[in-house]
Amino acid sequence: xxxxxxxxxxxxxxxxxxxxxxxxxxxxxxxxxxxxxxxxxxxxxxxxxxxxxxxxxxxxxxxxxxxxxxxxxxxxxxxxxxxxxxxxxxxxxxxxxxxxxxxxxxxxxxxxxxxxxxxxxxxxxxxxxxxxxxxxxxxxxxxxxxxxxxxxxxx
Length: 155
Fold this sequence. Notes:
Elements: E1 2-8, H1 14-28, E2 35-41, H2 53-61, H3 78-81, E3 84-87, H4 90-100, E4 108-110, H5 124-127, H6 130-150
Parallel strand pairs: 1-2, 1-3, 3-4
């Protein structure tokens, strides 16, 4: 089982979007049984809150299923539970390292690191642009699956 944890600042926009998008992709490819996918926040600001209405609207528009999710904070113990801890931007990365302390197994990355054009995914909480965020998340999730296949992690 490939265990993936997506991480952003509040766990209501980008990380939940990535969670739902990757869950949908692996289900459509018939490989969902090979994955456990979840998401978390680096901050405590949104703990207990559901996904942002902009994320919900975008997922509904695209007919991407969402399961019940309430924001949780990344814990140091998550490092041992997941194979991939994937942030959305440099601030997430810094905060992930602050919480996790170290990355001896090289599990921590940014989602768009898997693409040919590594960059941060803009936070739609500030930009209001959930379309752009979705395009980046989709690109990152597709590239992540290619990476897993290329490296023999995924058959």
